[in-house]
Amino acid sequence: MKRARTAALMATVLMIVLAGCSSSTPAATPLPYQHSGPDTVGVTTLDLGSAGPVFGERLATVYYPADPSTVAGHARFSYTEASTLPAALQGIVPAKYNTTTTVDAYSDPPASTKGPFPIVLFSHGYGGERLYYSTLLTGIASWGYVVVSADYLERGLAAQTLGSKVTSTPAMDTAIMQSSLNAVEQASAAPTSVLHSVADAHRVAAVGHSAGGETAFDALGNPQVTTAIGWAPVAPAGTPSKKPVMLIGAEGDQVVPPATVRKTYNSFPGPKALVEISGEGHNTYTDICVGIRSGGGLISYAVASHLITPSLAKLGINGCQKSDLPPQRFWPIVQFYTVVQLKNQFDGDTGATIPTPAPGQFPGFTVTVRQSS
């Protein structure tokens, strides 16, 4: 009995001690970056000049913190998959395949007066388009960033459809990203622009998907660009930079598989972080993945019309089949880690530890994080 009373007393003391420790050092609150941020988002378009007679004007879509008191009179932002194609091609896409995407943003409201905000330059993947990532780019902008997504037409969807002989080069892609930075700086300086005073040219990051990852990493050669983030990224064209980078990959990616992403990660001297996500695939980062899952979208049209080979179609739908988890559950992971990297570089500790997910933070997924300084 004495032994039992002693054990009970020790247990009570231990509980009191643990309770005291808990009250003095509360558990860290999970970061909310996978959700929409505090800023209302506006969307506008900038003209980057002519891309030649085949492609026409080169544009950039800008997702930015907007003045919430002004958005009531502005339409929600939406686009169709064909809307970025040349006019001659838009008309031949049947309506059932021309999927519409609407995001939590508004068309052309005045910018927030709480700026200026850091700039994020975005580069789409091979065969992609500037609008196809609007859900993720809107989410990033909602955390206080001006996200500029330019047309890389020479490797975009139109180039593949038209069989264009004009091919992109790393130097060309770098010049396009620079032109998009110049354009948003000029718009931010113009009193008549909806982007007036919104962009901070002293805080610039680059983000890219697939081939756009190469462009983002190459942008680190620009003294203005502080950090780069690659989603299923191709390696940089030149010597890997010593500036901070983050790479995000999915284990089901058949285009840029995990081994390739790890090899690129290992090539950087650091600071660097690698985020590996279970399942999903190469196209899960895009809005068009939703339409593909339901049999819509331009890829489904290309398959039905025998415009692409079965092997190419397989890569195009990688991560977007009904056997995959819905992309709406994958995007929050990509958004979370992208915003973590941006916040660390621009608003916090540049050497901060990249967190592993809290239990249940991303149901259905396993996320592994590696980091080196």
Helix content estimate: 25-40%
Taken from the alpha-carbon principal axes, the silhouette is: globular
User: What is the overall number of helices?
Assistant: 11
**How would you characterize the largest beta sheet?**
11 strands, mixed
Q: What is the β-strand count?
A: 11
Distance N to C terminus: 56 Å
The radius of gyration is 23 Å
Mean pLDDT, to the nearest integer, reads 87
Strands across the major sheet, in which order? 3-4-1-2-6-5-7-8-9-10-11
Instruction: Classify the secondary structure makeup into a structural class.
Output: alpha/beta
What sequence of helices (H) and strands (E) makes up the elements?
Answer: HEEEHEEHEHHEHEEHEHHHHE
Oligomer: single chain
Name the beta content range: 15-25%
Low-confidence stretches: 1-28
